[in-house]
Amino acid sequence: MMTTSPTYRLEETADIGLAQKWLSLFRVFMLVGAATLVAGALLGGDRFWSGLLLVSVFLVGLGLAGGALIAFEYLSGAGWSVAVRRVPEAMTSFLPWGGLGVLLVLVLHPSLYPWMSHEHHFAGFKAFWLNRPFFLARAVAYLVIWIGFTRLLVRNSRQQDLTGDARCRQRNVAVSAAFTVLFALTVWLASVDWLMSLEPEWFSTIYGVLFFSGLMSSGLATVVLFGLWLRRLGPWRGVINEEHLQDLGKLLLTFCTFWAYIWFSQYMLIWYANIPEETGYYIHRVRGAWGSLTIVNLLLNWAIPFFVLLPRNNKRNSRIIGQVAVVVLVGRLLDLYLMIVPANREASALPDAWVVGLTLGLIGVAGTVFWRAMKQAAVVPVRDPLLGESLHYHQ
Amino acid sequence: MSRRIFMGIFEREEDILGAARAVRERGWTIVDIHAPYAVHGLDKVAGFAPSRLPWICFALGVLGAGLKMWFEYWTTAVSWPINVSGKPWDSLPAFIPVTFEVMVLLAGVGTVIAFLLSAGLRPGKRAVLPHPRVTDDRFALLIEEADAVFSPVEAAALCAKFHAVATEEYEA
Predict the structure, then answer these.
(1) What is the dihedral of CA A31, A319, A211, A259, to 10 degrees?
(2) Angstroms from B1 CA to nearest CA on chain A
(3) Which of A29, A77, A384, B125 has its CA 20 to 30 A from that of A86?
(4) Are B91 and B64 found together in one domain?
(5) In total, how many domains does chain B have?
(6) Where are the domains of chain A?
(7) Contact B96/A268, CB-based, under 8 Å?
(8) Which of A241, A268, A308 should we substitute to test contact with B (largest number of B Cβ atoms within 10 Å)?
(9) E strands in B35-163
(10) Distance separating alpha carbons of residues A65 and A224, to the nearest angstrom
């Protein structure tokens, strides 16, 4: 069992030797990613930049999912997840890194977006919305809002470790309420800006919800994996048990199913209406090699997690839920790949070396940044009044 | 066939949890536990077999989805083929929403009915309470007396150790 000492920190509780092995692996991955970044910036074409957009949006999504999970916990007054909260808190520090990657693409390679070229002339609202200065200003505004609010949430939570002040929780409930509203608006707009406008003639009003559902399932999968990692390294031994895993598994199952529901809602309406300006998006994605990838996408993001996580005992089994989490994360990569890369109709469906190198970099950055953020505070919110409830949690 | 039941009545959830655990450690069989509200961890302590309802729910869901899918295919592609905006007769995406609804309906309503049947909760059924206050502020632990290892004297002592307010033996 854990002690209630306020200095319940990572360095004191983790098996440092084992942690160092992981961290050096992450460092190697980060170097691979950095080398890919430099080489791609100098030599790479559209494929490199769409890969960079992919991994950056992926990382931003994990950070946002962290913020959303914290906010949902405060707003619902959930007790069970308090012991887990430091993981989503640490995940919010992915936001600046992912944001930097997105900005690099938008500034250095705007030609990924066909509407940025001079041949495109929009009228009316599209001309007002899709122009470079406003587009960049919006991107910066989203990132400032996300980073600002998540920093506030994390700061109040860490403050409580030191002071034990119950008002920290009340303040965070208010911050969470404001963040949830802004989160819904900005996540929707950012997905439309960064991903949907890759094909500016095409539109879908449910696109933001689809992006949100994938963001949440990949975020929950990441919480599961980091949680199991911290348990193996030591700090979370006796902190999370099968009861927490089962609840995380339930949420993961829910959001995978929600993703499938939204994915199909978008697909079916476009298939049914069969209007030329909408259908082109899917015709390209359900034929040939892209079609095979679309089926694999549905398997990874819904069918496998759904049927594996349905029985109670599978959610409580750390091996099984860990493997499902990996499947969901690969699925999220593929989902974003299918959103971004086929926007260029000539692009081949086969993943290229750029994406592989950048994905390794993504894992390296995520692991390293997570570890650094976890080091900055106790591994559980030691003075949160609901921590006891979370540690003694039963289904 | 009637069986003899030994019943202990308790006032607090800690006591019923402790008593149930002690009864199981002695190897006696717990017939049932009555509590006014859901007590965390009680089902684990009592050692009841896991509910079969999830499997019934899953089977009904598969059945509902399968039947509805077949019915839609049969009506629109076999029995009375209808051309809707030039789409193929067996247009699977168009069948999915109704298939989903029927799956949820059959699984949801069917599971409730299966629960009512297995619990014997038919209309007009009189409540059988081992003690009138188990729906209010008392906990009842029902132990089977058939076990060779069972001893009413020891059972009474065990219940007393966990602050039982009353014990009773009866035929059920």
Answers:
(1) 160
(2) 36
(3) A29
(4) yes
(5) 2
(6) 10-379
(7) yes
(8) A268
(9) 139-144
(10) 13
Which residues lie across from B144 on neighbouring strands?
B5
The lowest-confidence range among A48-52, A295-299, A310-314, A391-395 is: A391-395
pLDDT digits (tens, 9 = 90+) for A352-382: 999 999 999 999 999 999 999 999 888 888 8
The answer to whether the beta carbons of residues A316 and A246 sit under 8 Å apart is yes
**Does ipTM surpass 0.95 in this model?**
no
Q: Residue A6: pLDDT band by 50, 70, 90 thresholds?
A: low
Are residues B46 and B57 both part of a single domain?
Answer: no
Please tell me the least confidently modeled range out of A184-198, A271-285, B19-33.
Answer: B19-33
Tell me phi and psi for residue B4, to 5 degrees. -90, 135
Residues in B lying within 8 Å of A, measured between beta carbons: 40-41, 50, 54, 58, 85, 87, 93-94, 96-97
**Which of A274, A312, A394 is nearest residue B85 as measured by Cβ atoms?**
A274
Nearest alpha carbon to residue A382 among A391, A373, A372: A391
Residue B124 inside a domain? The answer is no
Q: Which domain holds residue B94?
A: 53-119
Q: Is B144 domain-assigned?
A: yes
More confident residue, A95 or A395: A95
Q: Do B93 and A310 touch (CB under 8 A)?
A: no
